[in-house]
Amino acid sequence: MKHVKIPQDRIGVLIGEGGETMREIEERAEVRLDIDSEDGTVKVDTVGDPVTALKGPDIVKAIGRGFAPEDALALLEDDMMLFELIDIEAASRNKNDFRRQKGRLIGEGGRTRELMQELSGASVVIYGSTLGIIGGPEQVDAVREAAEMLLDGAPHGSVYSFLERKHNEMKHKGLEYHQFSG
Predict the structure, then answer these.
(1) Mean pLDDT over residues 79-99, rounded?
(2) Predicted confidence band at 79 (pLDDT cuts at 50, 70, 90)?
């Protein structure tokens, strides 16, 4: 049994309309979810295949960190799918620096986040003080590296060039990536 804590405002998303999302997670990840809507604690119990159930807590955590349930459930599609969080606050010196760093990652009108997502093929969400990534190993690496470049103060133009280079490398290697259709 694993315990995962998620923000209050994401509990409704985790449960879904009439419990639909919760049931889908339980069925597909072969787990049982016990959600305490008072404090945001979710108990994840394995009820089926233990290997499949290992992804259960990550799915719950991903939804808690701002991912749409269908993006979080993508973790079950392939054994190589990864979920990673980058703590923006840890890379910041103070509150003003945190806001600036978060703004750099989002970009004007969300453009930088969208480009990270489109060019890497990974799902990218910025929620609270974290940047979340769901994708294959190469996709996650590309987004992580781009985010670290931005947090270290690299100009957006060089980060976009880096992402385009990675995108072309992945395409050249014949790696499949899902084009975000949101």
Answers:
(1) 95
(2) confident
Amino acid symbol at 107: G
The helix or strand, by DSSP H or E, that contains position 46, with its residue range, turns out to be strand 41-46
Residue 141 has pLDDT above 80, yes or no: yes
**Strand partners of residue 99:** none
Helices and strands, counts by H and E, the chain? 9, 6
113 within 8 A of 124, measured Cβ to Cβ: yes
Distance of alpha carbon 24 from alpha carbon 28, whole angstroms? 6
Q: What is each CA distance from 174 to 105, 145, 169, in whole angstroms?
A: 28, 21, 9
How far apart CA 143 and CA 133 sit, in angstroms, is 7
Cα–Cα dist 104/95, whole Å = 14
- pTM, whole model, 2 decimals? 0.89
Q: Match 């305490």 to its residue by tokens.
A: 36
